[in-house]
Amino acid sequence: AYGAEDFWFGLGQEPFIEAGCRVTECYATHDRQLLPAERADAILWHLRANDKSLPEVRSPHTFYVFWMIESALYTYADLNTYNGVFNWTMTFRLDSDFPRPYGRILFSPNVSAKTAAPKNYAHGKTKLAACLVKALQTHMEVDVYGACGTLICMRKDDKSCREMLERDYKFYLAFENSLCVDYITEKFFNTIKYNVVPVVYGLGYERTQIPKGAYIDVMDFASVQDLASYLLYLDSNDTAYNEYFRWKENGYRVFDQENAVNKQAFCDLCERLHEAEDVTAGIRKIEKYKFLELVQDECSNVVVAEPLKFRGTIWIE
């Protein structure tokens, strides 16, 4: 998946043990020569992999898992082709059989409560917003990075770019490229870890456990001008601006796709395999993701049907 042969989880049994899974008797592999496909308990299949092949003969023993974290707009495939193939889904949708979002923000009792003295998160910041939105530029100063702008911060230097963002900017425009329910990507989760306020444009924030006071939602404003006016107000009022960071002082912690979030999905898959009964009972009809252009619309779920309840070798395609 996107260059990660282990789907950012790991291979063998060790990752299940290290992740603290309740059931650890599973073994993940991408080596098709390790054992015949019909002996695999589950096959994890990525729609956008270079090799999309599946075993020519399907074993009644094997569960097929549809894996996808891209939006409906970028599947580059007709999912109707795969009707009657998959038992389970592992996608960014929170109602997937094994939800695998890009991140979560959860209350963590191990994180200390409020700091001794309130921090002024606006201190030292000299710029308002960074990203690419021409409409906002008519109302306020916006620095544009990348192909559409004049400023450069290379992806290979992501950490230093984020640190610069935290040091210099008050806001970051974390706009998704698709409006799909629960499609909240690294644009948000890679930014929220730093002390800068994300201005978001996407669907599904209200369905998550992300504190409402952690971000500014474009959809809460009637116009771009209203949004710009509010950002300028926060720029002039440090007390109001600092309220967007109180969640960090109240025991919340960010989990991104490279740690607990991804591990939990694989732990759940392993556990379900040890509970499973009949592989044929849960084969689903796959529907085409629907990327609808209007804000009030949403992408449909990948599958139609209730999750099936399912042992231990996971073959990663």
Automatic annotation (TrEMBL):
GO terms for cellular component: Golgi cisterna membrane. Residues 131-288 form the Fucosyltransferase C-terminal domain. InterPro entries: Glyco_tran_10_C (IPR055270), Glyco_tran_10_N (IPR031481), Glyco_trans_10 (IPR001503), GT10-like_C_sf (IPR038577). Its main location: Golgi. The keyword Transmembrane applies. Pfam families: Glyco_tran_10_N, Glyco_transf_10. The keyword Transport does not apply. Keywords: Glycoprotein, Glycosyltransferase, Golgi apparatus, Membrane, Signal-anchor, Transferase, Transmembrane, Transmembrane helix. One of its GO terms (molecular function) is fucosyltransferase activity. Residues 17-103 form the Fucosyltransferase N-terminal domain. Pathway: Protein modification; protein glycosylation. It is found in: Golgi apparatus, Golgi stack membrane. Gene3D superfamilies: Glycosyl transferase family 10, C-terminal domain (3.40.50.11660). It comes from the Eukaryota. Its EC number is 2.4.1.-. It is a single-pass type II membrane protein. Belongs to the glycosyltransferase 10 family. This is Fucosyltransferase. It comes from Hyalella azteca.
